[in-house]
Amino acid sequence: MEKKITTPLTADKVKDLKAGDSVLISGVIYTARDAAHKRLVDLLDKGEKLPLEVKDQVIYYVGPTPAKPGKALGSAGPTTSYRMDPYAPRLLDIGLKGMIGKGLRSPEVIDAIKRNCCVYFAAIGGAAALIGKSVKEAEVIAYDDLGAEAIRRLVVEDLPVVVVIDCEGNNLYEIGQKQYLDSLK
């Protein structure tokens, strides 16, 4: 089932998303990869203010390519999510509602997703140019020294993702594998 959502991503919106749903996201999302996540958690450890308000936001794990003339951003394919796993629970605990990446998540992240009524989306690896077309505006808001891995504020329109882990902990990677193995019987 395809659903359209607009950020901010509230708990009510998250509760309506189920593993396997195709979703088109519009509104503001943020980018951050592992180096930026480490800096964010270091700020939290020091009791300092973050450079963005994470409550009800979505972070896309991406290091986009430079924009071509007339475009907001270049290719924007997802990076492997497990590199953010040491940091994600802290951000989920302070209000982050969604993450976009690819690949499996740790049990600690899945527990934090369930505990905080959050969602993990997957973007399609290999579709970076297509995903980049969904980005209408892009602005570096923190850690410019990280280059492609700086934190960016993106305005997106119909960014295509799939719900992989919903707020109840249902995991499309496990569901899909089971369905496939059952079909072989």
UniProtKB/TrEMBL annotation:
Gene3D superfamilies: Fe-S hydro-lyase, tartrate dehydratase beta-type, catalytic domain. It comes from the Bacteria. Keywords: Lyase. This is Fumarate hydratase subunit beta. NCBIfam families: PRK06842.1, ttdB_fumA_fumB. Residues 6-174 form the Fe-S hydro-lyase tartrate dehydratase beta-type catalytic domain. Transmembrane segments: none annotated. It comes from Clostridium frigidicarnis. The lineage of its organism: Bacteria, Bacillati, Bacillota, Clostridia, Eubacteriales. GO terms for molecular function: hydro-lyase activity.
